[in-house]
Every structure is written in C-alpha cells, then in structure tokens.
Design a protein that fits this description.
The complex is a heterodimer.
Chain A lengths: L1 H5 L4 H33 L13 H28 L2 H33 L7 H22 L4 H14 L2 H11 L19 H41 L1
Chain B lengths: L1 H8 L4 H39 L1
The chains are: A mainly alpha, B mainly alpha.
Chain lengths: 240, 53
C-alpha cells in the first residue's frame, strides 16, 4: 500500500493528481456556502432560548470544526514525516497553519459576538475559550517556525515536533466543556447518543461545514502548488 | 422594504449577527486574496525566469 503511494511523494505527480480535485472543490464550496448562508440566515428556526443569535452558529461552529480538523491533519502529516521522511508530508503540513489560523480567528471573534447577547460578556477565561486561544498561538508559532527556517531541514523537524507537542491541546479543546464547568455549552452535534439539535438547524450547519471544508481544501492545495513553484524557482535561479 | 428591515434587525440582535457574518466574510475574502496573490507572484517570477532563459 505504502509502496503504491511512493510515486505520489513526488510533488509534481502529486500536483497533477490533485489539480482536478482542486477545481471541483472551489465550485462545490461556493455553491454549498451560498446555500448554507441562505438556509442558516433566512430559513432555519430561531432557538427557543437564544432566539435569533443562534444564526451565528452556522459560521462559528463550521470554522471551529475546520480549525480542529486542520490541526489533526497537521499532526498526522508531521508524524508521517518523522516516520517516513517524505518531504511532501511536511510541505503539505506547513501550508495548513496560515489557512487554519484565519478559521481560528473567525471562531474566536464570532464566538465573542455570540457570547455578548447570550452570556452578557464578549470574553471569559473559561476552559473552552482559553484552550481555543492557545490553539491560535500554536498556529502562530508554527507560522513563525515556517517563516524563520524556510527551506531548512531543521525547520521541518522543529515544525513537526512543535505540531506534535501542540496536539495535546486538541482533546483539551474537545472535552473542556465536559471536564470543567464552563460558560460554553456542551457538545450538541459530535457527541455520544447523536446530535441533540433540531434537524432544521443541523442541515444548514452540515452544508455550511462541508462548504467550508471544501474551501479549506482548495486554499491549501493552491498554497501547496505555490510552495512547489517557489522551490522550483529557487532551484532554477540558484543554477544560474 | 419592511420585511427587509425586519430581517436586518433580527429581533434586536442584528448588530451581533451581522457583525459576525461581516467579520467572517471579510476574513475569508482576505484569505482568498492572499492565497491568490502568492500564487500569481510565483507564477510571474517563474515566467520571468523562463523568458530570461
């Protein structure tokens, strides 16, 4: 299985394979996000407790899921890089934090705007919010390492080790609402016993989340393409 | 027009809801622009290099 994947470790072959996927992703993402926005803003019902403010959920939760998924992806790519030493793994991993940090920032800002009418405050140092802020700083650290050690094997190793150490924050974010008393509500979609929110809210949320996921894939693939071209440029210009 | 204003007002929570969607939209657009500018810049550099050769 792994031997079959070896040929895709060549960045140029990888790009050839993923390019058609990239184009499909952007069209599907635009359609799903537009549909999710219309359903979420105008057709989903208000919450019986939070009223209309629940509509912030469609952008807040989908961005939060994306931030967490992106980190899990970086973690697995870093572990794979340390085991198999394929440079492509760390090349992909290093293109994720810049996209993911924007989704983390969106999660924090929209959460804060949701918190004011719901909890009466924009920010509180509770476990879920604080651990999410730490995730933002971990992404910042990964971006700084990438910028500081550009095209350096030590940089690749430092990036991989930091991302593995930082992964401890992911279960803390997920289970913080169960382990500590927090203002943040407990999980209502990804939980034992199935989702507890109404189907009319769940459908726009899933559509929006899938659209955001496809947009993320498109942006990361575009960044990977640029990173490969940058290395190509560096190689060609150093030959002269 | 009235329906539009009611939709904007969101029963008194319009400021929070539309601000959240506004921030979301601006940040997503800035991210897309940044990714595209990086792609265009490196394509331009490669094209320039190829022309020189």
């Amino acid at each position: 299985m792994l031997k079959k994947l070896h040929k895709y470790a060549n960045p140029n072959k990888f790009i050839l394979v993923v390019m058609p996927i990239k184009n499909i992703c952007i069209y599907a993402a635009v359609f799903l996000i537009a549909l999710g926005l219309v359903l979420g803003l105008f057709f989903s019902p208000p919450d019986y407790q939070q009223g209309e403010t629940v509509r912030i959920m469609y952008i807040h939760v989908s961005s939060a899921w994306m931030s967490l998924f992106a980190y899990v992806l970086i973690f697995f790519l870093s572990v794979s890089y340390l085991i198999w030493k394929f440079p492509l793994f760390v090349l992909i991993a290093k293109e994720i934090p810049f996209v993911a940090i924007i989704f983390t920032l969106i999660t924090l800002i929209t959460g804060s705007l949701w918190g004011k009418p719901t909890w009466g405050t924009y920010w509180v140092w509770d476990a879920r919010l604080t651990s999410f802020l730490i995730l933002l700083f971990i992404y910042l650290g990964l971006i700084f390492i990438d910028k500081t050690f550009k095209y350096n094997a030590n940089g690749d190793l430092s990036f991989s080790y930091l991302s593995i150490v930082g992964a401890i924050n992911i279960p803390i974010i997920k289970f913080s609402v169960d382990w500590w008393n927090t203002l943040h509500q407990p999980a209502s979609v990804i939980r034992a016993g199935g989702p507890s929110i109404s189907v009319e809210m769940l459908i726009p949320l899933m559509i929006m989340s899938f659209g955001i996921f496809l947009l993320f894939i498109y942006l990361v693939l575009t960044n990977i393409q640029s990173a490969i071209d940058e290395r190509k440029f560096l190689f060609l210009s150093s030959k002269d | 027009m009235d329906k539009f204003l009611i939709a904007l007002e969101m029963k008194g929570h319009g400021f929070f809801i539309w601000s959240a969607y506004g921030v979301w939209f601006v940040l997503i657009i800035l991210l897309i622009i940044k990714v595209f500018l990086r792609k265009r810049e490196i394509e331009r550099k490669l094209e320039h290099l190829n022309k020189e050769k």
